[in-house]
Amino acid sequence: MAAVAGLVLVAELAAIGTAGAATASISAVGSVAQHSGTGVTTLGLSPQHVGDLLALAVKADSSSATVSAVAGGGVSSWSRAQASTGYSGHDLEIWTGVVTAAGSSTVTVSFAAGVSSTETALLAEEFSTTGTSWAVDTGAGISNASSTTATYPKLTPSGSGELYFGYDAIAQTGAAGSTSGFSYAVTTDADVATWDTAVSAAVQPTAKQSPAGTSGGVAILVASSGATTPPTGISAVGSFVSKDGTDTTTVAVTPEHVGDLLVLMVKVGSSTVTVSSVSGGG
């Protein structure tokens, strides 16, 4: 093969600053899914992102109809986060699961006792995070005396930026509360769910009902971790290294830092000669 003119040029680039740990940011995704009625055991879901958290509230108007299992809904493994039978004649539970398959699906709840003649309700909300993992921090239940205010459990986070998710079963007609930072969803059977995605101190939200009546609730705090802050920028290191000439195939470089990026440009004075591989250079 005839000699071919070529040019090799190398530049070194370094990140400015280093990646570090950061508080994960949690956000609600879409709107709640709910289904209530006599003997209801399924709920249609359509989770949007793999890795999101699904929080599922389950109510049964029977303290013996506790949840024995939850399956489906785009989640491969559900866990009971909190359960309470403190509100007389009711079982209230929250289950959580990480989405492993996005798209339309159905979650199925199994009960320890038959519910064919029992009023039940299922409600789910999806949450995303800038972190990489989820962990239930704490939870509690509550039973409230007759009032026009329906109170949720008071919970204290162990860290900052945690998710509060709660569900209140209400004897009369429930309505959204006005606790700062909280969003509310009134169900078709007049119960009220609530959540706040950035809890960093003790909180106890409230909802409303009319006329006055009893109520009871269950709530959890969920933490997310694994978020990082990226480097603040990129800078060139040293000066360009270049070499040209006929049949040029090597260039000497001296990288200054492990982890820096080397950018290599190769010019060949022939359209039929292409680079097949590059090796060395640190």
Give a short synopsis of this structure.
0% of the residues lie in helices and 60% in strands. It contains no helices and 19 strands.
Mean pLDDT: 89
Task: Estimate percent helicity.
Answer: under 10%
Biggest sheet architecture: 6 strands, antiparallel
The radius of gyration is 29 Å
Give a verbal description of the structure.
It is built from no helices and 19 strands. It has 282 residues and is mostly beta strands. Strands 11, 12, 13, 14, 15 and 16 form a six-stranded antiparallel sheet that branches. Strands 3-10-5-8-7 form a five-stranded antiparallel sheet, with no helix packed on it. A three-stranded antiparallel sheet has the order 18-1-19, with no helix packed on it. The protein is elongated, with a radius of gyration of 29 Å.
Q: What does the secondary structure layout of this molecule look like, with pairings?
A:
Elements: E1 5-16, E2 20-21, E3 26-38, E4 42-45, E5 53-60, E6 67-72, E7 75-84, E8 91-99, E9 105-111, E10 119-129, E11 133-151, E12 162-170, E13 173-175, E14 183-186, E15 192-199, E16 206-225, E17 228-229, E18 233-246, E19 261-268
Antiparallel strand pairs: 1-18, 1-19, 2-17, 3-10, 4-9, 5-8, 5-10, 6-9, 7-8, 11-16, 12-15, 12-16, 13-16, 14-15
Keywords:
single chain, mainly beta, 6-stranded antiparallel β-sheet, 5-stranded antiparallel β-sheet, 19 strands, 0% helix, 60% strand, elongated
